[in-house]
Amino acid sequence: MPKNMSIKNISFSMILIYGLVFFSPYIFRPFSPDIVIAGTTFTYILGAALMIWLYIKNKNTAVTMVEQEAKLTSPVFIFLLGVSGIFLAMIIQAIVFGIETAITGVPPSSQNTQNIIAVILANPLFILATTIGGPIMEEFVFRRSLIGLTESYTGFWIAAIISSSLFSVIHQDGHFFVYFFMGFFFALLYKMTGKIWTSIIAHCGMNTLVVIAQLIMHYANIELPK
Predict the structure, then answer these.
(1) Which has more confidence, 1 or 152?
(2) Single pTM value for the model
(3) Angle of helix 196-223 relative to helix 111-122, nearest 10 degrees?
(4) Is 138 in the active site?
(5) How far is CA 16 from the centre of its chain?
């Protein structure tokens, strides 16, 4: 591997890693469910670690237009926007779910989230994939890589729309606009600071809170008297 990779090569490498990790459960399918979950969790964490390594190793040479043009690059802004982004993301999610429910009459439930909680209940180790590995990879791929590859041709806003649309489609949840606006919000956090860590903090934090809330609700329901 060359010492200094371009943003194009970095982006394609991260997309390739994400694709391999995304389909990794099929590799473990012949084995027991516990091995499938453990193996998938391992590949998620490994994929996230590889992306972080690629980013740090080439951060001085592989720079996107967003990173070149950002103004709020102070670590203070990165931390504050990342943490506040956790709660803003949850508010945005609730608003979009509410609008969808008002229009379609379908309850605001996420099958994707329910499936993840079911796996975590079966094997708590999977929480690492959901709250750390997955969000980190998604930010490097859908925010930094896809926007980095397309923004020079389309400008940031169109690139953000494209990446947010793909981000929504990949979740296969039936709530296109919920995931679209989430992705678009994370893209805005990335643009404001020029640091992918901002959206990573918000994304990881939001996923963690959602998982904790779902687990609390699950165990609370179990403990309710019949």
Answers:
(1) 152
(2) 0.92
(3) 70
(4) yes
(5) 16
